[in-house]
Amino acid sequence: MMVLVVGAGRVGAAVAKSALAAGHTVSVLDEDPLSHERLDAGQATSWEDAGGRFTVGTAIEIDALLAAGVEEADVFIAATRGDNTNILVAQIAQRRYGVHNVVVRVLDPARADWYAEQGLHTICAVKLGVAMFEQAIADAAVS
Amino acid sequence: MYVIVVGGGKVGLNLARELIRNGQEVTLIEQDRRAYLRIEQELEHAVQYGDGTELWVLERAGIQRADLVVAVTGDDEDNILICQVAKEKYLCERIIARCNNPRNLQHFKLLGVQPAVSATDLILNLIEHEVPGHGLVHLLDLPDEELEIIEVEVAPGAPAAGCRVADLRLPEGSLIISVLPRGKSGFVPKADTVIEAGSEVLVVLDPGLEPQIMAQFAPGSRAA
User: What percent of chain B has pLDDT above 90?
Assistant: First the structure.
């Protein structure tokens, strides 16, 4: 399976590494050439030697998406640090290139919910974090 | 009419100012605190502080009753998403988006964010129209009707230069509708009108005939 990860920050790089370790073909797109270091960190071999692909480019530039292999992608992960970039690029992957599995990182809970209703698979770390804090408070009250 | 303008840069602020002067009800949304404080001195309650891509900010501004949402921030992603939620979530009938990078126009179109206004494209069109000797200018494209109107300057030595309209060898599906001699007003030509080099002609044609038209009026020049 071909996984395209847009955004090689903490989240994107970690997801890309575990997908590669799980035996998938993985391509990473990020506008910062230095973000490549995060893919090499803690690995025995370089990202490319391990079989990974890395493309430098801006997420919403069509040429960059094509170079990173959006047309072959089975899974598309939008994990840049910008909600708006993620939501836009995910819809481009879904509507223009027909990628079936599009997963989007959205920090804003309200828009994570609304875009989920519109058919995007959104993952909201803020909502998950808030729920864990709430649980921690509830647990403290019981003990 | 109630108008929400997102983005308090030069475009957004001047737009809000003019709309207010014309008697419209306006809320401008600006996310930079310093810019907001500066604008607030002038516009007072007509400006709100916040990130216009967040739903609660739009709702606080009253997007549910807005007749028009105009997204003119410096970020195309933001402008696209503001207009997308305005249209699809809040069912706002009229939206206008600013496109900063013309290469992103395709994204506005893909997500149904229309009209998208690109200052770069507007200026490019003007340059195309103003720069002399540039060859061909598209005045009107009606893709659904399969019809175009172009303007072309007649080059010296072109097959059409010095030729009567009746003797022109124009392709089937094209017609000269106006001749604009240099420095004089334009007119509708007759069969015996002579086309002088340096004049401009307006031609109505089926799409795809530009190369044949250019071969007659301005061979060797670049088609736009």
Answer: 69
